[in-house]
Amino acid sequence: MKIELQKSIEEIDTNLTEEERKELIKSKKKEFNNNLRNAFENCKEKNHNSYKVIVRDTELIRIIRALNLKNNDTEENGYTYIKDLICVSVSVPMYKQIEKDGVIKVNHVRFKRILASSGNVRNKKVIFINEKLYDSAMTILLCGLPKDMEHEQVSKYNAYIGLVNSDTIPVSTPRMIVIDDFTTKIPETFDVVIKDKNKNLV
What's the CA gap between 64 and 201, in Å, rounded? Predict the structure, then answer.
């Protein structure tokens, strides 16, 4: 970078007065510093974007947006940026460390483990949610089931609750009602066919 700046300064017309020359050098340095700053910002942005992944719409994302739309409505390159949800690739030793309280800190924000579906587990990934949204999200996900219930097979529980992070397409709510089982008599007309012992129609 110093070589490029030096070359740029050397190319300045030598017929200029000393004052004009100083002013031009100052201008060139400012331009160079601006270019350097822009290059750094672009590099930083590329590095930041390399940690973002594109996912299809899921029920979990819709829940997060419903709970905190203000923080999850930023458009970037035509996609919605969900800030309250992160997917972490973990090794066994690292996960044992996380397992103590299920919380990690990213950019001064605390995230709590919410799920790891069977697909996530195969790929050594765990989904974390902003700790402030955790309780509200779990209330929705459990559909009234107690949060402290015990599970004989945790892997099954993880697989089922992990379905909320599957690709989905929202559809309109069907018009239906659910009623208790009951018995009733409905009058109806039937055509009855009777056969005799020789299987002839009567």
Answer: 68
Query: 164, 142 in Cβ contact below 8 A?
Result: no
Residue 124 C-alpha from the chain's centroid:
16
Contact at 8 Å (CB) between 133 and 145? no
- For residue range 133-176, what is the model confidence (pLDDT) as tens digits? 999 999 988 888 887 777 777 777 888 888 888 888 878 888 88
Bridge partners, 87 (sequence order): 127
Which of 159, 103, 157, 148 is CA-nearest to residue 130? Answer: 103
| Per-residue pLDDT tens digits for 175-195 | 888 888 888 898 988 888 888
Sign of CA dihedral 154, 155, 157, 161: positive
112/163 Cα distance (integer angstroms) = 18
Nearest to 128 by CA among 102, 154, 100, 158: 102
Strands (E), the chain: 74-76, 79-81, 85-89, 103-106, 109-115, 125-130
Tokens coding 119 = 């697909």
Task: State the helix-helix crossing angle for 59-67 and 131-142, rounded to 10 degrees.
Answer: 120
Instruction: Return the DSSP state at 173.
Output: P
User: Parallel, antiparallel, or unpaired: how do β-strands 109-115 and 103-106 relate?
Assistant: antiparallel
Contact 84, 74 (CB under 8 A): no
Nearest to 133 by CA among 62, 81, 56, 57: 62
